[in-house]
Structure formats: structure tokens, C-alpha cells
Write a structure and sequence with these properties.
414 residues, alpha+beta, Cytochrome p450, 3-stranded antiparallel β-sheet, 13 strands, globular, binds protoporphyrin IX containing FE
């Protein structure tokens, strides 16, 4: 994979300077070549500062501890407030989603959804995901070419989610385009100029999810939304806006992330002919390949937290009240935990729970769904009677934090 040339060059040299305190880098500098930047500083510094005041924590042992220990809690509105958003539909989402809440409020918001997205329940959709992936891959066989991001990777999570939520499949293009626009707020590449569009899309997505809830309340259909509305109404623990924003959270969490991850894993593997052939010979390597791709080029690059006391990491200090960006992107390539980290190793030892999905109370609600979508998306491509190849540019992944973005990836069948 190559990083696209950017207007702004990386300001720091690759040879390690004798640094005493962590430098502050701009968003543009960090986005320019994040892997190289992290690898340059990680041996000597536990974190970097960012222009918005956040601390980017780089090392695997620190990220693993801080994601769930007593020194931190989930950020609430601090991150977007630091970037000048004080009210409006983005703030309304951030204030009401499970993602940016803590303790009892978080439990109330997550609990009605937790069962539905459990590993056991999600296994029941595997068959549908498999035939969807095989169908989408099969459709392109005759034409020869496939626009992997838009005509494959985007559709697998979106159509699957529509099925789980009971959304009309004809709504897929509409709700996904809104989700992509809103999820920009969770990337590292939005600027003040993007805010009006993100706000307009947030308003529309809220109203779409709210209409879904209202229609199932008046005529339940026995689907996910009907069950959810039933349990929310019965327990009366969530306000109307909270009930809507958890559905919005799932639509946002379940579309962009998996789309990027499917493109990334396919791109990385197609760049390595030997690995692709190994997968064609042995289906048991699919799951390790998914995990290794998530480690090398994570679709979500970081996890936010707030320091609730002063924190010392390797003689460097973080003040209480600071926003932390726990860089999974850096930590998953930390050689202290992943020997020869740049290597795509199908036989690497793996932790039972992949760190890319976080840990503790906020561990990704959609982990089971994401992992099975990724496995089935890969299985259908690898298992096809024809051999897939890159047909245009290489894989390009953008962003150093939050949800990462991928360019279209053109592939073709031999
Ligand atoms: C490759 C795909 C995915 C990755 C890498 C990913 C990663 C993450 C991470 C790191 C978190 C924890 C954030 C934190 O601790 O602050 C998270 C939370 C979350 N994810 Fe995912 N995710 C993925 C797919 C999905 C899918 C398919 C869904 C759909 C159901 C989803 C829904 C959510 C939700 C609702 C939360 C908030 C959980 C909470 O705060 O309790 N994600 N995800």
C-alpha cells in the first residue's frame, strides 16, 4: 500500500531527532504519512500532541491499559467542543449516543441493543451475508471488472444492516449516503467547511431513523426496530431522542467502517500474490487474514478517551482533563507486541479479542457482525472460480485517527 502524495510534506525527518518533549503536529502533518510518523516517534516518546490539544498515545501497552482503566473515561462532548462545535445536530448526536457517554447513561443506551448484536445472534445472519457476497461477486464475473468499494464493499454491510434493522432495501442508497456524510465527523479529515454538510446530513438521518421508529410503533412488524421500540417503550429508560440516536449510531457504525475494512483487506492481499494463492488453497486462513489486515491497516485508527487524573507515561505527563487519542493504528504496529510489524503474517499469534474493536464497556457493539461480514466478503472473492487482480491504482487509505477513508479500488477477474 502507498500513501498518496500530499500537498503538505511531513515536517519531521525520518531520522530520529533527540526529542525531549513531544512535538505538536497538525492534522495535515499527521494525515500525510501516519505510519511513518508513528514509527519515528514511538520508540522514544509515548505520545504526540495534536494541534487541537489532544494527546496521541502511541504504544501498545499504554493503549491497552488506557482504553479501559481508572485513569480515563469516555470523552463526551470535549472533542467536538475543542473544534468549535457548541450546538446543533452534531452536538445533539454526540450528546445522545451510547458512544460518547459514560457509566449509567451508557449502560441504559447500550443495553437494549446488546443482545441483538451478540455473537450468537449474529451467526444467524452469516448465511445471508455469504449468499449476498457470492451474488455480488458473481455479478461482476462476466463484465470482468469490479469497482470494489462502491459495488461490493459498500453493499455488503449496508444491505446486511438493512436486513437486520428491517429497512426497505430500496432505501440503501439513501441511508448509506447520509451515513457516509455524517460519519465524516468521526474521521480525522473534516474541517470547519464540512460542518454545514455534516449538519444537514445529521438532520436527515435523525429524521429517517425517527420515522422508522414511529412507523414500527404504530404497526409493529416483528423485526429488529419493532422489538427495539417495544423494549424501549416498556422500560421507559430512554428519552425519545436517545432511542433515535442509538439507531443512528448503528447506521453510522455499521456502514463506513466495514466498507473501508473490506476494501483494505482485499487491496492488501491482492498486492501479495502468494497470500492470495494461500487463501485459495486453504479456507482456514480467511479468519487470520481478516485479523491481520485489521492490524496492519485498521479501518478505525483510534479510540478517544478523557484523562480524569494526571497521567505519567514514560516520564512524560498528560494533564487531567486532556483528550486522549489512543492510536490503535500505531499500537497495532508496535514491535514490542507485534514482531516484524510491517509483515502480513497469516500465522501470527492473535489475541482472542482484536484490539481494533476497543475494549471495556465501549467495545464495538458490531464486532461480531463486522468480523463475519469481513470473512464472508473475503471468502466470496477468494473462492470464486476466477482469479481476482488489481486493475488500477493501488490501495489508498487516508487518515490517522477515527474512521479512515479509502479510495475506490478497481479490480478485475482473470
Ligand atoms: C471493521 C469494522 C469496525 C471497527 C474497526 C469498529 C471499531 C469500533 C471501536 C474501536 C469502537 C469503540 C470506541 C470506543 O471505545 O470509544 C466501536 C464502537 C462501536 N461500534 Fe464499531 N467498529 C466496526 C464495525 C461496527 C459495526 C458493523 C457496527 C454496527 C452494529 C458498529 C457499531 C458500533 C457501536 C454502536 C459502537 C459504540 C459502542 C459503545 O459505545 O458502547 N461497529 N467500534
Amino acid at each position: 500500500m502507498k500513501d498518496k502524495p500530499k500537498d503538505l510534506p511531513l515536517t519531521k525527518p525520518t531520522a530520529m531527532p533527540c526529542v525531549v518533549s513531544p512535538p505538536t503536529l497538525s492534522f495535515a502533518e499527521l494525515n500525510a504519512n501516519p505510519h511513518e510518523t508513528f514509527a519515528t516517534y514511538r520508540p522514544s516518546l509515548p505520545f504526540l500532541r495534536r494541534e487541537d490539544g489532544a494527546y496521541l498515545v502511541l504504544r501498545a501497552s499504554d493503549v491497552r491499559a488506557l482504553v479501559k482503566d481508572q485513569r480515563t473515561k469516555q470523552v463526551e462532548t470535549q472533542s467536538i467542543a475543542a473544534r468549535g462545535i457548541a450546538s446543533g445536530p452534531i452536538m445533539e448526536f454526540v450528546t445522545n449516543t451510547m458512544l460518547f457517554s459514560n457509566d449509567e447513561v451508557h449502560r441504559r443506551r447500550r443495553q437494549p441493543l446488546a443482545k441483538c448484536f451478540s455473537f450468537r445472534r449474529m451467526e444467524s445472519v452469516r448465511r445471508d451475508v455469504r449468499s449476498l457476497a457470492e451474488d455480488l461477486a458473481g455479478r461482476s464475473l462476466d463484465g470482468g471488472k469490479l469497482m470494489l468499494r462502491d459495488d461490493y464493499a459498500a453493499l455488503i454491510p449496508a444491505i446486511t444492516l438493512a436486513g437486520i434493522l428491517g429497512i426497505d432495501p430500496s432505501d440503501v442508497p439513501f441511508f448509506t449516503s447520509l451515513a457516509y456524510r455524517v460519519s465524516k465527523i468521526l474521521t480525522s479529515s473534516w474541517t470547519a467547511e464540512d460542518v454545514p454538510d455534516i449538519e444537514a446530513a445529521s438532520r436527515e438521518l435523525k429524521s429517517y431513523c425517527s420515522d422508522l421508529i414511529i412507523s414500527r410503533r404504530s404497526s409493529p412488524k416483528g423485526d429488529f426496530i419493532s422489538d427495539y421500540v417495544g423494549s424501549v417503550d416498556q422500560d421507559a429508560e430512554l428519552s425519545a431522542i436517545e432511542a433515535v440516536m442509538q439507531v443512528v449510531s448503528i447506521v453510522i457504525g455499521g456502514t463506513d467502517t466495514t466498507r473501508a475494512a473490506i476494501v483494505i483487506q482485499t487491496g492488501l492481499l491482492l498486492e501479495r500474490e502468494d497470500l492470495w494463492e494461500a487463501l485459495r488453497r486453504d479456507e482456514d486462513l480467511i479468519v487470520p487474514a481478516v485479523a491481520e489486515a485489521l492490524r496492519l491497516e485498521p479501518a478505525v485508527a483510534s479510540i478517544p478517551r478523557l484523562a480524569i487524573c494526571d497521567i505519567e507515561l514514560d516520564k512524560q505527563f498528560i494533564q487531567s482533563g486532556s483528550v486522549l487519542v489512543l492510536s490503535t493504528m500505531s499500537s497495532l504496529r508496535d514491535p514490542e507486541e507485534f514482531p516484524r510489524p510491517e509483515l502480513f503474517d497469516l500465522h501470527r499469534e492473535r489475541p482472542r479479542w482484536h484490539p481494533v474493536f476497543g475494549d471495556g464497556a465501549h467495545r464495538c457493539l458490531g464486532q461480531a457482525l463486522a468480523q463475519l461480514e469481513l470473512a464472508e466478503a473475503l471468502r466470496a472473492l477468494v473462492g470464486s472460480r476466477r482469479r481476482l487482480r488489481l486493475a488500477g491504482d493501488q490501495l489508498y487509505v487516508h487518515g490517522h485517527a477515527g474512521i479512515r477513508q479509502v479510495d475506490e479500488l478497481e479490480v478485475c477477474w482473470d
